[in-house]
């Protein structure tokens, strides 16, 4: 069984209008999945269904063998699926960084000695060890969001869900957060599910899932997904910048090995221009 199994899940807030419709998804340990979809398509609702914050009306969500329908599994699921939201200011609870990071493990009854180790681990994983005694409100947006991630990491989650966690950050802050998340995925094998509006954040994912009106409309590698330009535009989504460049280069008669270029390929294609 995969680490996260979403089986035929439907959900509505008002028991009338389904906002998630018969979604099926299997996520393997170590995968990096990007989720894209227009405003109101159901991405955040899906994130809440992944960690049991919302329960499916129909279907099943199983995390590492634990069902969200089983009341006794609630703790186990919360420990395994950490969700980081958009606004870091709404996620930081304490007035000192280390207390903030300790909040989650304390609530889960982790022994005192181990909490210290977890703070060290989590702050070092996000490169914020030096800010252990700092006041969160004085940090930059990127730093605050890294502390929010550390707070989730202190629970040692197997799955990190990022719900537009870079949306309120400037480019520098976005890069800081993305670098941390990539490192966690590559080095610590943390499974990542990243909901984003930034198409450039999608290019390096193992798999992209396109949500449209509560359904999985497309699923595939970034290259497979963005090759379907008109379909993507039809779902109200942008193409990554590199895909626009590729389109323009093709129009100029430059032959390319793919419609989606990574940075190296893009540089090569531009250098080949006469
Ligand atoms: N707490 C709620 N109560 C009632 N309806 C809600 C609630 N939260 C979301 N919805 C509705 O559910 C649908 C899906 O919303 P959701 O927030 O999951 O979409 P989203 O893809 O995350 O959107 P965005 O891109 O704006 O973040 C929308 O129609 C939204 O209005
Ligand atoms: Mg959302």
Ligands in the model, by name, code or SMILES, are:
adenosine-5'-triphosphate, magnesium ion
Total count of strands: 10
Approximately what portion of the residues adopt beta-strand conformation?
15-25%
Q: Calculate Rg over CA atoms.
A: 20 Å
How large is the count of helical segments?
10
Helix content: 25-40%
Helix-strand pattern, N to C?
A: EEEHEEHEHHHEHEEEHHHH
* Uncertain residue segments: none
Query: Order of strands side by side in the largest beta sheet?
Result: 6-7-8-3-9-10
Mean pLDDT: 92
The main sheet comes to: 6 strands, mixed
Shape: globular
Structural class, judged by helices and strands?
alpha/beta
First and last CA, distance: 53 Å
Task: Give a written overview of the molecule.
The protein has 274 residues and is an alpha/beta fold. The protein has a domain at 240-274. The protein is 37% helix and 22% strand. The chain contains ten helices and ten strands. The strands form two sheets. It has a six-stranded mixed sheet, with helices on both faces. Strands 2-1-4-5 form a four-stranded antiparallel sheet, with helices on one face. α6 links the parallel β7 (159-163) and β8 (191-195). α4 (112-125) packs across α5. It is globular. The mean pLDDT is 92. The site of adenosine-5'-triphosphate has 10 residues, from α1. Adenosine-5'-triphosphate binds next to α1.
Secondary structure: elements and pairs:
Layout: E1 4-12, E2 18-27, E3 32-37, H1 43-50, E4 58-63, E5 66-67, H2 74-80, E6 81-84, H3 97-107, H4 112-125, H5 141-153, E7 159-163, H6 171-187, E8 191-195, E9 207-212, E10 215-220, H7 222-227, H8 229-234, H9 241-251, H10 263-271
Parallel strand pairs: 3-8, 3-9, 6-7, 7-8
Antiparallel strand pairs: 1-2, 1-4, 4-5, 9-10
Helix pairs in contact: 3-4, 3-5, 4-5, 5-6, 9-10
The chain binds adenosine-5'-triphosphate and magnesium ion (MG).
């Amino acid at each position: 069984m995969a680490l996260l199994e979403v089986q035929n899940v439907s959900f509505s807030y008002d028991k009338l209008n389904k906002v998630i419709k018969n979604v099926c998804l299997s996520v393997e340990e170590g995968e990096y999945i990007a989720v894209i979809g227009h405003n109101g398509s159901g991405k955040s609702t899906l994130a809440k269904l992944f960690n049991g914050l919302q329960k499916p009306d129909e279907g099943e969500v199983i995390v590492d063998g634990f069902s969200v329908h089983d009341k006794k599994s609630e703790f186990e699921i919360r420990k395994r699926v950490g969700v980081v939201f958009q606004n870091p200011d709404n996620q930081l609870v304490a007035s000192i960084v280390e207390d903030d990071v300790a909040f989650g493990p304390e609530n889960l009854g982790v022994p005192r000695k181990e909490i210290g180790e977890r703070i060290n681990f989590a702050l070092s994983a996000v490169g914020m060890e030096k800010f252990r005694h700092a006041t969160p409100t004085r940090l930059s947006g990127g730093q605050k969001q890294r502390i929010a991630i550390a707070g989730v990491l202190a629970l040692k989650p197997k799955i990190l869900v990022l719900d537009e966690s870079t949306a309120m950050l400037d480019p520098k802050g976005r890069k800081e957060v993305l670098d941390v998340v990539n490192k966690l995925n590559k080095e610590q094998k943390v499974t990542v599910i990243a909901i984003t509006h930034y198409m450039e954040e999608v290019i390096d994912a193992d798999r992209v899932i396109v949500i449209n009106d509560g359904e999985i409309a497309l699923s595939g590698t970034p290259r497979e997904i963005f090759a379907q330009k008109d379909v993507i535009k039809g779902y109200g989504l942008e193409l990554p910048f590199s895909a626009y460049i590729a389109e323009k280069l093709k129009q100029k008669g430059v032959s390319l090995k793919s419609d989606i270029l990574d940075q190296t390929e893009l540089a090569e294609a531009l250098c080949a221009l006469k």
